[in-house]
Design brief:
With 303 residues, the protein is mainly α. It has one domain. It has 14 helices and no strands. It has helices at 2-24, 26-30, 38-59, 63-66, 73-98, 102-124, 130-150, 155-172, 178-199, 210-217, 219-234, 239-245, 248-258, 267-296. It is globular, with a radius of gyration of 20 Å. The model has no long low-confidence stretch (mean pLDDT 88).
Length: 303
Amino acid sequence: MPNVEAYNQRLGIALSLVANSVWGMAAFYWIQTKPASSIDVLAHRAVWLVPVVVLILWGTGRLRSTLPLLKDGKTALTMMLAAFLVAINWGVFLYAVTNGKATEASLGYFLLPILTVMSGIVVFRERPSFPQKVAIVLGVLAVGVQLVALGRLPVIALAVSSSFAVYSVLRKRVSADATQGLFLESLFLMPIGAIWLVINDGAGLGQYGWTTDIFLLCAGAFTALPLVTHVAASRLLPLSTIGLLSYLGPSLQLIVALTALGETITPLTLSAFFMVWCGLAFILVDNFRSFQRLRRAGRVSPP
């Protein structure tokens, strides 16, 4: 039914916009947790995420089917490593947005699709297309330009992008959807976070006022919100549309960093961003053409 398809497409776009807007504006949330340290916030995020995800799985009737995944030793080990990488990604981003380095973090998220392509080539022996090769070259050049601009490697950008790229490789090997995976990861991180809260007298809780307490206690819900809406959107929209909308997040991160957070950008750094944007344009066009070919061949269908 055309009306149903149109409704699903509008709903999918709205959900994707919500997810990417939350990710893009996340700095506004995390700076409210200051003066709690990045490690303290990370611990709260790990602890309070578990009950939120449990409620989501229980409400959707998938909690019982998720628990058996822990019985598979290979799955459990893989998810433990994935949890470690997620903690690095979260921690580095939290440090960046609360220490005047949100611009570099946004560059990392722009680099992520290029590193994901590289991961597919190295790990899964995928054959890159010409546009993908161009994007990789542009990404490497952008890192080189940032090396000159900063006088050092863009550690934050590389840590944010590489940790999530490797995480994606690990998650590809586990038969769990995004919400189930988030539950398993948070389950491994929660004991560490709980121990940190205990040995550090609440890790900022009850020390900086009720406003900070609320933001710390809601860290889990804030983490889950964009993921749940993103998963819902991905079931309603083609991947080409999801891929295009996903660049809203880092774009908003950059805008927030340059405006609300008062960061500045040098001409060299701007040129690095431009190279990455050009690389992303090559990947987007290539993905769109691939999707169109599959659609004409009848291997995929519109939502």
